[in-house]
Design goal:
The protein has 18 helices and 13 strands. It is α+β, with helices and mostly antiparallel strands. The protein is globular and about 80 Å long.
């Protein structure tokens, strides 16, 4: 019955509502209905606004993490899309090269200042940052084009190439873990390459770079040039490639240092006084140069060192051998003259940074240097820290350690491979240790310590020879354990091969990259 009563009551309630509806709404009911509808609209509006604000807040948080910027297309290359992080990889490569150039005085880029605050091109008011971005795009485009060409040819990395990839990845782990400044690999990569770099992007670009480098190197290493081709190059560039033997006296004139009075105060000079002093210094220097020139004409066989001292030469070089490309511009044309013969004298003048130089030059000889180049493996045993001058005791200790290592090698397999392994484990020369201590293509014009170069190029030397050689001339001094690995072509042939290879490589690369299409994207501004 209870269930039945409930059903009836519900039926009556429904009927009552129908009757009320049939009578039409009262004014009171209408007002209440309007208020309820208004309240409902407000709730809906606030709900929508709340959702909008929540989405905006989430979007802002995501934006601040670099989610959108890191995925935006910065450049499209032959239909492939690349992000700011991809360009950052190449930006860093370009930046590092310019940094090295600046260290050698070959660039005015100031690495201590932001690239965005330095002008690269004053005519167009282009910053160094804009220049780096542009070069990064070119670098990435070249890498992509070469990668595509290599894959189309079915090129694969050798085992050595695969190891070349494994080494920097392992080194990356060592770098961030060994630093006190980074708590994660991701943080290290962002610090070095920018806020959008990830490990996957870094690895992908590193793989592409090594793949392309191996592809290019294998092509270049496979090039061969006939002796006729090399001779033709030499004949065209003999002036730059020949070895010139010259004797040179230099007399300098510059404005004397300012004088001081009894109290140590600088005595100011007028412009006219300075001009007179400079002119006097120039006349004195030229008079000494003229006197040496006349003395050599009168007696070519006299003691040249004494002559230099007699007339207070600023510098004196006797029988100095240099490449034609290094002959002073002031008398280069004279030296290059095919009619030049031993004993010919010449006077030349040139200005350099406010200093006036008066030269007396005697031509001794010119020849094509046929001295074979050399490949050497070495182990540097340091006698002191970099930049420090060792004591004799430290040199003796380093020599004893070097002899011990050499004896250890001789007691083993005594092969080039075993020497290379010993170099990897013991050499203080970080530049060559990882390559088994190998220094290739040493010539008389290489910029190495004299004792090192002289040993490598000694005509009595044979492949496989070993010896200890002292180093007192580099930033890290000590003793070298030397191993002659090979003897090769002379300098002029190496230069001819390098030039011909460069020309062939350029043509080969142009063929694979000249039609590459690059289109900047919205993500370029995040680089």
């Amino acid at each position: 019955m209870r269930g039945l009563n409930q059903t009836v009551s519900a039926s009556r309630e429904k009927k009552g509502r129908q009757d009320l509806s049939a009578q039409g709404p009262s004014e009171k009911n209408m007002k209440q209905q309007r208020e309820e509808q208004a309240a409902k609209r407000s709730r809906i509006l606030y709900t929508i606004l709340g959702a909008v604000f929540a989405v905006a807040a989430i979007a802002l948080l995501v934006y601040n993490t670099g989610f959108f910027q890191g995925r935006a297309t910065a450049v499209t290359i032959d239909g492939q899309k690349f992000t700011a992080a991809d360009l950052e990889f190449h930006y860093q490569m370009v930046y590092n090269q310019e940094y090295i150039n600046s260290l050698y005085g070959q660039s005015n880029f100031n690495y201590a200042q932001s690239p965005e605050e330095q002008i690269y091109d004053e005519l167009n008011m282009t910053t160094w940052h804009a220049h780096f971005v542009d070069e990064a795009q070119k670098s990435l485009a070249q890498h992509v084009a070469l990668e595509n060409a290599a894959k189309a040819e079915g090129y694969t990395l050798s085992e050595e190439g695969q190891q070349t990839l494994a080494d920097p990845l392992a080194g990356l782990e060592d770098q961030w873990r060994g630093s006190l400044n980074y708590t994660s690999r991701a943080g290290y990569l962002k610090a070095v390459y920018g806020p959008y770099m990830t490990y996957d992007v870094y690895k992908t670009n590193l793989e592409r770079s090594i793949y392309v480098e191996a592809y290019t190197s294998d092509y270049v290493n496979g090039l061969e040039f006939s002796l006729e081709e090399q001779e033709a190059y030499y004949k065209e560039h003999a002036d730059e490639l020949d070895a010139f033997t010259l004797t040179q006296f230099v007399f300098q004139a510059s404005l004397p240092a300012a004088e001081t009075d009894a109290d140590g105060n600088t005595i100011e000079r007028t412009e006219e006084e300075e001009a007179q002093l400079l002119e006097q210094a120039k006349q004195e220097a030229k008079a000494n140069a003229d006197a040496v020139y006349a003395a050599l004409q009168a007696n070519p066989s006299q003691n040249l060192e004494s002559l230099s001292q007699q007339y207070s030469a600023y510098s004196f070089l006797q029988d100095d051998v240099r490449l034609g490309s290094s002959v002073n511009d002031a008398y280069q044309e004279w030296a290059y003259d095919s009619a030049r013969k031993s004993g010919d004298l010449h006077q030349a003048e040139y200005e350099s940074f406010g200093t006036y130089n008066y030269c007396v030059v005697r031509f001794e000889d010119r020849q094509r240097d046929e001295t074979p180049s050399a490949d050497v493996r070495h182990i540097l045993v340091a006698a002191a820290e970099s930049g420090q001058t060792p004591t004799q005791e430290q040199f003796d200790e380093a020599k004893a350690k070097a002899q011990e290592l050499l004896d250890q090698w001789k007691a083993g397999e005594a092969t080039e491979d075993s020497f290379a392994e010993l170099a990897r484990e013991n050499s203080a020369d970080t530049g060559s240790a990882s390559n088994g201590g190998l220094i290739s293509a040493i010539t008389p014009y290489s910029n190495y310590v004299d004792t090192f170069t002289d040993w490598a190029l000694d005509p009595a030397r044979k492949v496989g020879d070993t010896e200890l050689v002292q180093n007192t001339g580099s930033s890290v001094q000590g003793w070298h354990i030397m191993y002659l690995a090979a003897q090769g072509d002379p300098y002029w042939m190496l230069e001819a091969q390098y030039y011909l290879s460069s020309e062939a490589e350029k043509a080969w690369m142009d063929e694979r990259t000249e039609n590459v299409k690059t289109e900047p994207g919205s993500g370029l501004k995040y680089v």
